[in-house]
Structure formats: structure tokens, C-alpha cells
Amino acid sequence: MEINEEKAVMVGKFKTICVFCGSRSGNRPSFSDAAVDLGRELISGKTIGEVKTVADMHERKSEMAKRADAFIALPGGYGTMEELLEMITWSQLGIHDKPVGLLNVDGYYDNLLALFDKGVEEGFINAPARHIVVSAQTAADLLIKMEEYTPLHDRVAPRQSWEVDRLSLPHNLKPSSHLTTHF
């Protein structure tokens, strides 16, 4: 699996932001427009990159999490939501203290945010943990909210306790898939 890293430098608190997005553009032009708008807000005009080979999806997400200062999810499908939810979970567990943002284009994530609220109401999500997710309808508003984000935990778990490259899996359990990731 390869990771092609493209670093987006921006003015402000974050040097590198990991953006999760769908492999399809969706049915509304506003989804593509929002992605372009986010790109304008982030990109310095320079493309700097590196290709890194990783063993599997978990290691891919671990590498992205290590290298990013924040995460943003654009509208997307199951893969986007899975990556988003893992970053939310890792924040809740204290694995990272980085902002997790939802670019809620045309209310795409309204039902997911309502589900999180329902989780709090029903006692499955602690009220402070609900604030892990920052959302806005425009890229500019989202970045401002993410700059103001206050982490849930005072400190994070030591990296060696969760990094996949430090885990020793038996050889027969190590996946052999190859993926390319752009970030």
C-alpha cells in the first residue's frame, strides 16, 4: 500500500490537514464546489509530496493521523465516514487531540450530527465528547471553528501504545494489500 503525501501549508494553526472525501463527486455540484473552495482555503500553490508504502488500511490511517494537525471530512460514502468515525474515536480515547471537522455542505451531515446528539441524549456518548466534532457549511467558517477547538483531553496516549508499526502481528495475520493514499 502506498501513501502519496501532499502537504497543504496554510496561514494559522495547522500546517497539515488530512482531508477525507468520497471517490465520487456526488449528485450535487455544491459538493464539488465545496471541495474546490476548501482547496483554495488550504493550498499554498506548491505541491510537496512523498510516497510511502504501508501494509494495510489501519496503517494508512495511522500514518495520516501522525502527519496531520487536523482532519476534515467532505461529503462522502462509507469509506469517508469510517475514516471520520475512527478519528473521532481516537480523539475520544485520547490517542490524538486534533480537531475533527465536518464540511456540512447543503446539510449533508445533518442526520449524522443528529445521531451524535441522540447518542448523548440516550447516554451512549458523553456530552463533552460530542464537541469533538466541529462542523460548518463553508470551508472558511469550518477552519475558523477548528482554530478555536479545545481538545477533550489534557494529554494524549503515548504514540508507541497505538502505532501500528510498533505492534507485532504474527506474519500470517499481516495483510498484503496495496493501496495508494493522497494527502
From TrEMBL:
Alphabetized GO MF terms: cytokinin riboside 5'-monophosphate phosphoribohydrolase activity
UniProt-listed Gene3D superfamilies: 3.40.50.450
SUPFAM superfamilies per UniProt: MCP/YpsA-like
EC number: 3.2.2.n1
Keyword Hydrolase: yes
Catalytic activities: 9-ribosyl-trans-zeatin 5'-phosphate + H2O = trans-zeatin + D-ribose 5-phosphate; N(6)-(dimethylallyl)adenosine 5'-phosphate + H2O = N(6)-dimethylallyladenine + D-ribose 5-phosphate
Enzymatic class: hydrolase
A GO biological process held by the record: cytokinin biosynthetic process
Key words, A-Z: Cytokinin biosynthesis, Hydrolase
One cellular component (GO) term of this entry: cytosol
Domain of life: Eukaryota
Keyword match Cytoplasm: no
Pfam families: Lysine_decarbox
Similarity section: Belongs to the LOG family.
NCBIfam families named among the record's database cross-references: Rossman fold protein, TIGR00730 family (TIGR00730)
Task performed by this protein: Cytokinin-activating enzyme working in the direct activation pathway. Phosphoribohydrolase that converts inactive cytokinin nucleotides to the biologically active free-base forms.
Name of the featured protein: Cytokinin riboside 5'-monophosphate phosphoribohydrolase
Organism: Amborella trichopoda
